[in-house]
Amino acid sequence: MSQVSATHFRRNMACCLDTVTANRIPLRVMRRNAEPMMVIAESEWRSIQETLYLLSSPANALRILASIADADAGRFVERDLLEPDEGDRSAD
């Protein structure tokens, strides 16, 4: 994670924001006598919020973490992806 001073951020805001967006890496903005601020792309923020929502249910969190552990241990089955119209059975 990169970090810059508030002065640098103010003087180079467009460049800093473009870098955050392009690299998908948060930027820490250091402030004198104040808590640092984080700058992240909106899509990253949405992703974090979705993850927090999915993990907010203890039962769902256990299922997700168990699935990740299974995948890490090689316990999974590979499947071919369906074409969009192959999976749509509503026309039947």
UniProtKB/TrEMBL annotation:
InterPro entries: Antitoxin_Phd/YefM (IPR006442), phD/YefM_antitoxin (IPR051405), YefM-like_sf (IPR036165). SUPFAM superfamilies: YefM-like. This is Antitoxin. Antitoxin component of a type II toxin-antitoxin (TA) system. It comes from the Bacteria. Belongs to the phD/YefM antitoxin family. Pfam families: PhdYeFM_antitox (PF02604).
